[in-house]
Amino acid sequence: MLHNYSRKKILILGMGLTGISCINFFLKKGIIPKIIDESTSPLYLHKIPKIIKYKIGILEPKWILESDLIIISPGISSFKPILIKARLLGVEIISDIELFSREALLPIISITGTNGKSTVATMVTKIAKNAGYKACLGGNIGFPVLDMLNQKADLYIIEISSFQLENTFTLKSKIAVVLNISEDHINRYPKGFEQYKKIKLSIYDKAEICIINSYQNVKDYINHSQKWINLESKKSQYQINFDKNNAFLYYRNKKILNMSETFLHGYHNYNNALVSLAICNAMQFPINSIIDTLKKFSTLPHRFQIINNNKGICWINDSKSTNVNSTKVALDSITSKGTIHLLLGGDRKFADFYILKDYFNKMKIKIYCFGQDRFYLSRICKKKSVVIETLQQAIILISKKVISGDTVLLSPGCSSLDQFSNFEERGNFFIKLIKDIT
Fold it and tell me: Exposure pattern of 416-436 as b/e (b: 16+ CB <10 Å)?
């Protein structure tokens, strides 16, 4: 059922890509919303049509409390006191995903998780297109979901963050998957990890097919009208098995794909491929299209991306690592017996990195702690840590110590926003430094 917004006072929070897409959505319906951004100089201020009233630099309480409907961008916390007050007064606050789900008439594949969302969403999109479907990819990956409504398509594939799920209530996915849940964004959740986890799992609420990829207590979510595919079960039809150091994807006890025939490295990427196989099988895409696409798929930039492997030294850009578990996954994927030079640092978002202490103690590793939380990170394993202020200083230091057989890994485990505008800028800067040195 399509909603009628014509008589509502509508306010958009945030002037990023999401906010601009919301403005365009309402203008096409002949509705003129208002918009606010907390920044005094929003990047897309010039894209606001002259007909739109806006405020910058503050979440204007009067505008918020007099609204009927607020669409909140993921960069703004849902738990700000003024927004809590607005909800208590009956103001409806939703995400752009919720707005999209009310309008979408095509099948939706929804993907969330702490790590791996973009990779799996991109894999599934490429497989769908290879199978002859017009597939639109959007959401947290950088293309606003509302813009997909204007495109000719057979299905939608959306990557969803916890920030978007906070205010999403009626999303009816054909397939929903939670890739994994580990400690992240704890600074955004007043009730900590359990609140974050509950929000992630809410993606299953109205889904037709639910795929479980890592151990999660989902008994409170199981609805017997839904189909559940548990990839973690020993009885699962989908498995990753090893034979003579080669990893294979299995389906129904049959070898489907030798991972050495792909460009994918590390168990986490094998798992991403397995999840993509399960999703696309559930969508009944031809198996040949699935295997062919996985064989050609290259890792997305800044995700365990091998930049240089010259003179026996491997330099890896894993700048997308913005939480502690992603760093552990990256370390698990290194097979070299030389020293690992780990670049760890940024804003840890109140996460507990001490879970890596025993792990570090057993490894042949040197840790270069940089950025805002460098002193905290250096205390985890003092004997193996060096405190350095910037990424550039760390690379200069490493370049003087690294020898053949070593691996240099940028897997910061932290947000980049203390020193960079995003993880892409951090990764690109790392790549430039490596090219200058090698």
Answer: bbebbeebeebbbbbbebbee
